[in-house]
Amino acid sequence: GALVRTLKKGGNPAEEIATAVSMLQNLKLTHATQMKELEGSDSATAFNRKCFDELVLRKMFVIPSFEIHGGVKGLFDLGPPACALKAAMIDCWRKHFILTEQMLEMECTNLTPEVVLKTSGHVERFTDLMVKDPVTGECFRADKLLEDTIDTLLESPEGKLLPVEVREGHLRIQRQADAYTPAELDELLFVKYQLKAPSGECYSNSFPFNLMFKTSIGPEGTAVGFLRPETAQGLFVNFRRLLDLNAQKMPFAAAQIGLGFRNEIAPRSGLLRVREFCMGEIEHFVNPDDKSHVSFQNIADKEMVLFGRDNQLGSGKTTLITMGEAVKSKLVNNETLGYFMARTQLFMEKIGMDATKLRFRQHLETEMAHYATDCWDLEINTSYGWVECVGHADRACYDLMVHSKATNTSMVATQKLENARDVTVAKLKFNRKVLGQAFKGDQRIVSGLLDDLADNWEDFEPIAQALEANGETTVGNFKITKDMVSWTKTSKKVHEIKYMPSVVEPSFGMGRILYSLLEHSFYVRESDEQRCVMGFNARVAPTKCAILPISSNAECNAVVDEIALDLMENDISIRNDKSTAALGRRYARADELGVPFAVTVDFDTLVDHSVTLRERDTMKQIRLPKSDVTTLISAMVMGKTTWEKCMMKYQVVQVDDGEGNAKAELEKPKTVVEKSPRGSFHRPAK
What's the pLDDT score for residue 363? Predict the structure, then answer.
């Protein structure tokens, strides 16, 4: 296109211009054909949202809160299947992280005093940028408006014909949407993309909106509080007690699972952006001068998809790399951060997430807090695009430092040295009379703060210089004058050093992970578009096994109850379906709930005490002794054996499900057909 314009402006011969125009048209035609082929390939595996949404609602996985009263945006209830799925997922999370890493788990209050969140910076900075429609007053999140505007542009017929470099430019802007300042967002939204409000008027300029829910504590209304926007602060303020409980050993990690609350500007996308949500957060406290991890070599060879900041601003391509190589090349800042990233990947794979739809995106410099060293988000690809589900941040020592300063509380750990070393310190002499008159009951706190600083001359030197120059300075919230303390610079041998720990924080959005797992598990049978399946990993499936009698007579039901009791006594959740519906329909109902296994009790069970066991995804069945059912299902749920191994151990059989869905013979040796009032069964030939 640029060439054609240049030729026309330069007055080149008509034949030369016509040739260039013909080349341009051919290029556009080729590009359009490629786009159609790409769309066609995508449609073959397109996510069936209509079927998915209908199933999730009909089977009560997720439903709008207060639905009969019209509902409230951003609030959802989890039905019985999703409750069980979430519980199993969190149980797996606890075992994978808390038990394996021997973390210290806490449960802190949801209600947080204002002073705590002022100290942490949430009252001032926990904001998103918002714009308003001046006519309707409707509010929109500015960065999401920018992302949606670019999506709409690129998906339009005109957008699909844009040159590759132009499309990449738009995508580069989109990837930085939440890193722009208000002025930069306004320039992009209103000048570059000419965006108008739904009313047709111009939006207001972008301005920050604090996302915390404010309330008052107590009937007087004088104590301001907030519903916590994250669970982390409860762990930070309890650091001293946690360190004592851990016998002063470093490094160590604390963890918490609980609710967070954020007054989202424009909730949407189901469970992906809500106002009340479950979080799982880990705070790993480590020496800032040694962020190695004792178990790093266990995950060093784990390959992962990383999207570094340089690639985000450049090629837009991800990198498949081992975590060992990523840390060695400094793409990932340190071993501890890399270790938790790899462990998160392993957790996602363990619960059944599609590994091909996982990537770690590094925060841009403009996204990170000033104190952060490195940050990576685990993003999961869903029908809504790439969604941030787990944040991994090296927060340095910021959190402990601000709470220590605000409360005059020591938040330090100690490290014993193998060999004593000489260090330069300040030797202090306090004027207790002056200190007592000035600070009364706080005298010990003040002297303790000064003693902590005196352990390292580099820390105390600014205090000494200020006292010499001005006669006074501030330590913590206390005003110190020169007549309160004298000092001499000296050296001493130390056998331990004190430091304020850095924090590496993996933060899991359990609701987003739950929704992504629902999407990744959903599929439609190739043979029947009406048969939807939730292909949950057996480890986290809400119900592990369905038990179905071929007949509703008392003898079959007694066996069903016997098997059910044995499974439940071994902590395996079950679903009894004693209805008179055809066997195929009962299988389909179990498939929709994601039940991985189904035991069928038939008339032969009453004779030889054997049953059939069906696996959900392959729909194949094996015949096995009734006494083996619990042991076998338990082993598959725990990942100790596989369905493929079970099919090698037991005879594979074929069952007519009562809806004409019997298939061709599956395995040798040959089988014979035996009929019953409820179906036809293929049995091994004698």
Answer: 94
The C-alpha atoms of residue 553 and residue 526 are separated, in whole angstroms, by 35
DSSP result, 486-549 = EEEEEEEEEEEEEEPPEEEEEEEEHHHHHHHHHHHHEEE-TT-TT-EEE---TTT-S--EEEEE
Query: What's the DSSP call for residue 268?
Result: B
Pairing state of beta strands 545-549 and 574-576?
parallel
Spatial distance between the Cα atoms of 250 and 246, rounded to a whole number of angstroms:
8
Q: What share of the chain is helix, strand, coil (3-state, %, to 5)?
A: 40, 25, 30
Dump pLDDT digits (tens) for 531-568: 999 999 999 999 999 999 998 899 999 999 999 999 99
**SS3 assignment, position 231:** coil
Residue 497 near residue 287, CB atoms below 8 Å = no
Q: How far apart are the C-alpha atoms of 621 and 417, rounded to whole Å?
A: 63
Contact 231, 283 (CB under 8 A): no
Distances (CA, A) of 672 to 655, 657, 661, 680: 11, 16, 17, 10
Terminal CA-to-CA distance of the chain, rounded, Å? 77
125: three-class secondary structure by DSSP: helix
- Give the CA angle between residues 377, 381, 385 to the nearest 5°: 100
Single-letter amino acid, residue 28? K
Interval 378-388: pLDDT, tens: 999 999 999 99
Distances (CA, A) of 456 to 258, 288, 408, 475, 489: 39, 16, 18, 15, 10
